[in-house]
Amino acid sequence: MIKLAVVDDHPIVIQGIVSLINNLENMQVVGSFQSGSALISFLNNHEIDIVLLDIMLPDGNGIELCAQVKKLSPKTIVIAISNHTERSIIMQILQNGASGYILKNASVEELKNGIETALRGELAFSREVIEIIAKPSVNDLKGRPKFTKREKQILQLIAQGKTTASIADELFLSPLTVETHRRNMMQKLDVKNSIELINIATEQLLI
Question: Which of 63, 84, 98, 160 has an alpha carbon 20 to 30 Å from 207's alpha carbon atom?
Fold first, then answer.
């Protein structure tokens, strides 16, 4: 019997996946979790063959969680199950040890085939993901930008709607320094304003 765990912050999604998996031959969901920390706690005391992992979680993101799972339990197969279609995100979680990436709009057959493919030691993708990987965007070809620790701090505060002056006070910086960091981040992402900066940074999980 193949033992699986499902990690997703939406109970309805979890129920749907659990129902699908438990109807498949020789497969059983032995744990379902709405946070990464709950999964890690479970893995400390239980062996899991496959983890079906969402990208966005309330206590972090699936990309970082995937690396934690593989470090804690190298033999456990991780397959991302997500709505995110950004090629950079797909490639990041694969680099962190994932064995596949399946979109939530995939068919039951695609999910079943994906699990079986991963169990054979191959990479598993739903059809749409294969098309995304085959056609990198201009931003993908440029490579994912790197933000410094300070830039990430400022970015998070901008996302909270704070002004340059309040950010400067909170981080003990001059307003000019804050604005310089903001301009540098906008240049790295090739955007024209703070709204675009937040939107793109969120998509690429830079926040």
Answer: 98
